[in-house]
């Protein structure tokens, strides 16, 4: 297992030389105030066999998890995904090429693996031809930067994942290993990547801030001495190139270097930070009813064009990850009607995938939900920039199953909001050692696009803040006892219908027996 | 309205057209100036589908297109890049409305011997009905179907057997439900071989316009017929249905229907069958609607209430609309029977305004007009229960209140009860007409 640990300090954070001391076998960190990323790379033979079997059936498997509480995403880790578990999965090319789409067994394995690793309760069933995954639009199959299949589930915590890691990778008495795995519980986001070309599995965690007393840890060299343990203590530096991120600080390989080496390097970056006041908040104004309107509120600072190169064109976007309980009307949203769009401060629906059936109730929807990439309008130059700019996206609830209270709660993760800007030809994003792709939304843009992520900032007074909105959905009230029982509805309906039928038949009987005026006439004649 | 108004066909049809033209223009204005559109969502579905067929593709590529491809073909002009042509379909639907109204008036005069002024007056219940004009100018295709159905009534009453068969076949292809009218036509006396003199008799029938003599005329026969026709035909006998005209009508209708379906199936394959027909059987849309079954459907779909009630739900509806009503009433009044069938059909299932087009045939002899007090009570109950339902629906959809039970449940059952009451009045009125 190779490890790479990166501490990124804010420019105003204190650093003293004795906070990091390197011995031939160990780097000791003491009280360091920094964001931290740790990336562990496993070669295929280090992977537990049951996991390996599933991975062998994957061409690519990328998992992204973000916590529900807001956190800072500092450069070079500025990219974000909506809270919850995201899975991007591409089956082996042969399966795609031979038109087998995907052998049922593979998905089955991916689904059951996800359940075993993350949560038995997630909605990931794969009976035969139905799939829990959705297929995102693929812009180019040759240079596919999006996976063939996509999945999302709400997942507030990683307890199950940590337990799984501890069971599969740690000896039961290895306290260090157990604690190391448990540290993932406090991570703000976790990435897992596997592809069949490198046959390597990487797991990375990101912590946006240090524990209260700062990071204090002993980073040991690899026990076998064969795998590299690399540590960086870095900070971002000002750069004159808008496409680039510049990092400076100390680097060292534990067990190899005798001292940490000063470094300064820069690279073109896909994801860039925005100032702290470039925020957004998401709400569903009451009453939500069955047609809630997602409102994204942007303060003035968020509307300023990002510091992209002067000739770049930029547009503000949002990427919605909607569970199956809630959906957009793709015909309504893909309209070109300027009145509709400007009344919502939208420019256009750029991409949609997943469950967009306009009528189906939730219980017949097999897949997890849908993704929507929407370009947002910004105030015209001539307009006085408003104090707050509200973008609204009309959405609709599916019918949910009946409940005792007459209501059910639907949880909608906050979307990500970002500027997308064109970058110069020839910009090679891939050389960035911290590059992050397979986020769902970034693959919908060209490979040379730069993203400037806005910071989610809940406005509500309620603590703790979560980047998940809960909507109360009215459903059929069904009590175990009392008046609102299924039986009452059943018997009531059938009785009323039958009474109606009998009444109409009785009237028809009377009509059939009524001679009408003709016989009267006849009688009158014969008389 | 002054009676001189009804004397002038120009004024009647002119104002019907004017009403629709102004609504159409108003709709264009609202669409251009408000994010809330006048145009019906369905019209966007039709025109999207028309765009697909204009590109040689299947109209079923458009989600929720649940109609025959004929409709998409008909609306291909909406895809032409000529200013104003996007509204071609609405103009077509609105004109169909007016044609239906004209056919109503014509039929009231020709077969029922109403004075043309009176006929136009009753036709105005349809022609100048703001609800009707609103529906078609928003781009709903119902007007087209109504014109076909009134055309069917005219063709039958005027003994144009082949024409009637073709119209019925086409109407059923367009929307399934008009198949119920087939039974009414067959049971009715229009195609009896013995009544060939009826038309002549009708034409010479009295043209006085009192309700009483109208109700005699509505039967479609003069008095001299009655003596010739002393032996009543047994409507349940084979011979009755084997009358040449009935056979010809049945065969033409079936041939038209099959020819259309086979050609559409050849052109568009399984999606045509799925979306035009099977969808209505297998649909999984349990959103609330005016149906008295709505709550039960929600319950059974989500909870799996045992019992085949979903398929049984069709039984009362079909029993009444297909069998009992035509057998009981079709020989008294064809359009009256069709009204009762349609009313029963929508009462026992879902709510549509399909029956409006038959009102001008029924109202002249209706006890709702004869007794204004009863008429107003019915109207109040019909509007009241509907308003109650709409209010509960609003509470659910927009205020997010869980109003499925008891609100929507009771409201839809009350609305059902009122409709059943109206159906009873309708049947009694029709029962008072002479058997032919």
Automatic annotation (TrEMBL), chain A:
Gene Ontology terms, MF aspect: mannosyltransferase activity; peptidase activity
Top-level taxonomy: Eukaryota, Fungi, Dikarya, Ascomycota, Pezizomycotina
Cited PANTHER family: PROTEIN PBN1
Transmembrane segments: 491-512
Annotated compartments: Endoplasmic reticulum membrane
UniProt record similarity statement: Belongs to the PIGX family.
InterPro entries: Pbn1 (IPR042322), PIG-X/PBN1 (IPR013233)
One Pfam family this sequence matches: PIG-X
Keywords in alphabetical order: Endoplasmic reticulum, Glycoprotein, GPI-anchor biosynthesis, Hydrolase, Membrane, Protease, Transmembrane, Transmembrane helix
Name assigned to this protein: Protein PBN1
Mode of membrane association: Single-pass membrane protein; Single-pass type III membrane protein
Gene Ontology terms describing biological process: GPI anchor biosynthetic process; proteolysis
Pathway this chain belongs to: Glycolipid biosynthesis; glycosylphosphatidylinositol-anchor biosynthesis
Cellular component, GO, one term: endoplasmic reticulum membrane
Function: Required for proper folding and/or the stability of a subset of proteins in the endoplasmic reticulum. Component of glycosylphosphatidylinositol-mannosyltransferase 1 which transfers the first of the 4 mannoses in the GPI-anchor precursors during GPI-anchor biosynthesis. Probably acts by stabilizing the mannosyltransferase GPI14.
UniProtKB/TrEMBL annotation, chain B:
GO biological process, one term: GPI anchor biosynthetic process
Keywords noted in UniProt: Endoplasmic reticulum, Glycosyltransferase, GPI-anchor biosynthesis, Membrane, Transferase, Transmembrane, Transmembrane helix
Location within or outside the cell: Endoplasmic reticulum membrane
Residue intervals passing through the bilayer: 12-29, 247-268, 312-330, 342-362, 374-391, 403-427
Example of a GO MF term: alpha-1,4-mannosyltransferase activity
Pathway: Glycolipid biosynthesis; glycosylphosphatidylinositol-anchor biosynthesis
Predominant localisation class: endoplasmic reticulum
Entry keyword Endoplasmic reticulum: yes
GO cellular component annotations of the record: endoplasmic reticulum membrane; glycosylphosphatidylinositol-mannosyltransferase I complex
EC number: 2.4.1.-
InterPro entries (UniProt xref): PIG-M
Membrane topology value: Multi-pass membrane protein
Family: Belongs to the PIGM family.
Function according to Swiss-Prot or TrEMBL: Mannosyltransferase involved in glycosylphosphatidylinositol-anchor biosynthesis. Transfers the first alpha-1,4-mannose to GlcN-acyl-PI during GPI precursor assembly. Required for cell wall integrity.
Name this polypeptide is given: GPI mannosyltransferase 1
Organism this protein belongs to: Aspergillus nanangensis
């Amino acid at each position: 297992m190779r490890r790479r640990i990166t501490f990124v300090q804010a420019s105003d954070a204190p650093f003293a030389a004795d906070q990091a001391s390197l011995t031939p076998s160990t780097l000791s960190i003491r009280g360091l105030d920094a964001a931290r990323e740790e990336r562990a790379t496993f070669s295929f033979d280090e992977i537990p066999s049951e996991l390996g079997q599933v991975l062998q059936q994957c061409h690519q498997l990328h998992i992204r998890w973000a916590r529900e509480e807001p956190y800072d995403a500092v450069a070079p880790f500025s990219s974000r995904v909506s809270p919850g578990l995201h899975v991007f999965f591409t089956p082996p090319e042969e399966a795609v090429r031979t038109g087998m789409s995907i052998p049922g067994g593979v998905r089955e394995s991916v689904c059951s693996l996800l359940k075993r690793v993350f949560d038995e309760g997630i909605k990931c069933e794969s009976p035969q031809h139905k799939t829990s995954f959705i297929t995102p639009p693929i812009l180019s199959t040759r240079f596919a930067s999006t996976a063939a299949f996509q999945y999302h589930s709400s997942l507030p915590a990683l307890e199950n994942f940590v337990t799984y890691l501890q069971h599969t990778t740690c000896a039961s008495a290895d306290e260090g290993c157990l604690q190391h795995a448990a540290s993932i519980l406090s991570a703000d986001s976790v990435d897992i990547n596997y592809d069949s070309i490198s046959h390597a599995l990487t797991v990375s965690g990101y912590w946006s801030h240090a524990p209260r007393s700062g990071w204090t840890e002993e980073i040991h060299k690899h026990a076998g001495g064969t795998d590299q343990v690399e540590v960086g203590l870095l900070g971002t530096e000002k750069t004159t190139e808008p496409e680039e991120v510049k990092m400076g600080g100390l680097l060292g390989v534990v067990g190899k270097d005798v001292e940490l080496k000063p470094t300064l390097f820069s690279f073109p970056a896909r994801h860039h930070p925005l100032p702290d006041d470039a925020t957004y908040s998401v709400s569903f104004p009451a009453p939500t009813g069955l047609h809630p309107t997602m409102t994204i509120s942007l303060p003035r600072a968020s509307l300023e064009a990002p510091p992209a190169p002067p000739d770049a064109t930029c547009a503000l976007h949002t990427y919605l990850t909607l569970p199956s309980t809630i959906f957009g009307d793709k015909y309504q949203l893909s309209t070109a009607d300027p009145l509709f769009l400007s009344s919502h401060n939208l420019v256009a629906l750029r991409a949609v995938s997943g469950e967009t059936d306009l009528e189906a109730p939730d219980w017949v929807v097999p897949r997890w939900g849908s993704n929507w990439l929407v370009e947002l309008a910004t105030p015209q130059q001539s307009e006085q920039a408003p104090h707050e700019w509200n973008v609204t996206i009309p959405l609709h609830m599916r019918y949910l199953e009946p409940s005792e209270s007459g209501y059910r709660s639907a949880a909608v993760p906050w979307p990500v909001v970002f500027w997308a800007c064109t970058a110069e030809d020839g910009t090679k994003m891939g050389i960035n050692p911290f590059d992050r792709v397979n986020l769902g939304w970034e693959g919908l843009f060209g490979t040379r696009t730069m993203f400037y992520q806005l910071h989610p900032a809940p406005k509500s007074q309620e603590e703790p803040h979560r980047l998940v909105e809960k909507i109360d959905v009215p459903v059929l009230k069904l009590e175990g006892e009392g008046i609102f029982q299924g039986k009452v509805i059943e018997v009531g309906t059938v009785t009323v219908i039958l009474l109606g039928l009998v009444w109409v038949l009785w009237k028809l009987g009377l009509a059939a027996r009524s001679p009408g005026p003709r016989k009267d006439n006849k009688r009158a004649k014969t008389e | 309205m002054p009676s001189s108004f009804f004397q002038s066909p120009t004024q009647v049809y002119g104002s019907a057209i004017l009403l629709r033209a102004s609504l159409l223009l108003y709709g264009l204005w609202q669409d251009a100036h408000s994010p809330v559109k006048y145009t019906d969502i369905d019209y966007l579905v039709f025109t999207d589908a028309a765009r697909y067929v204009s590109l040689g593709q299947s109209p079923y590529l458009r989600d929720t297109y649940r109609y025959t491809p004929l409709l998409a073909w008909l609306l291909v002009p909406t895809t032409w890049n000529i200013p104003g042509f996007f509204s071609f379909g609405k103009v077509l639907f609105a004109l169909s409305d007016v044609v239906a109204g004209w056919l109503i008036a014509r039929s009231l005069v020709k077969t029922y011997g109403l004075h043309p002024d009176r006929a136009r007056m009753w036709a105005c219940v349809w022609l100048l009905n703001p609800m009707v004009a609103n529906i078609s100018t928003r781009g709903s295709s119902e007007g087209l179907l109504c014109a076909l159905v009134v055309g069917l009534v005219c063709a039958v009453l005027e003994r144009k057997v082949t024409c009637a068969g073709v119209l019925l076949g086409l109407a059923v292809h367009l929307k399934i439900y008009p198949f119920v009218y087939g039974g009414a036509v067959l049971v009715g006396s229009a195609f009896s071989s013995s009544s060939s003199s009826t038309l002549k008799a009708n034409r010479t029938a009295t043209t006085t316009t009192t309700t009483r003599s109208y109700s005699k005329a509505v039967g479609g026969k003069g008095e001299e017929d009655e003596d010739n026709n002393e032996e009543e035909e047994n409507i349940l006998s084979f011979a009755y249905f084997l009358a040449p005209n009935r056979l010809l009508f049945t065969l033409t209708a079936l041939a038209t229907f099959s020819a259309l379906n086979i050609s559409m199936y050849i052109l568009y394959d399984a999606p045509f069958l799925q979306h035009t027909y099977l969808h209505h059987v297998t649909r999984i849309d349990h959103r609330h609607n005016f149906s008295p079954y709505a709550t039960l459907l929600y319950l059974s779909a989500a909870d799996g209430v045992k019992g085949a009630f979903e398929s049984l739900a069709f039984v009362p509806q079909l029993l009444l609309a297909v069998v009992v009503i035509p057998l009981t009433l079709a020989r008294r009044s064809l359009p009256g029977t069709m009204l009762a069938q349609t009313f029963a059909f929508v009462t026992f299932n879902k709510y549509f305004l399909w029956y409006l087009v038959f009102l001008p045939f029924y109202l002249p002899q209706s006890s709702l007009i004869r007794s204004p007090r009863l008429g107003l009570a019915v109207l109040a109950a019909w509007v009241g229960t509907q308003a109650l339902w709409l209010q509960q629906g609003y509470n659910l959809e927009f205020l997010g209140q869980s109003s499925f039970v008891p609100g929507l449940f009771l409201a839809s059952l009350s609305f059902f009860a009122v409709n059943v009451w109206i159906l009873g009045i309708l049947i009694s009125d029709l029962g008072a007409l002479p058997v032919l």
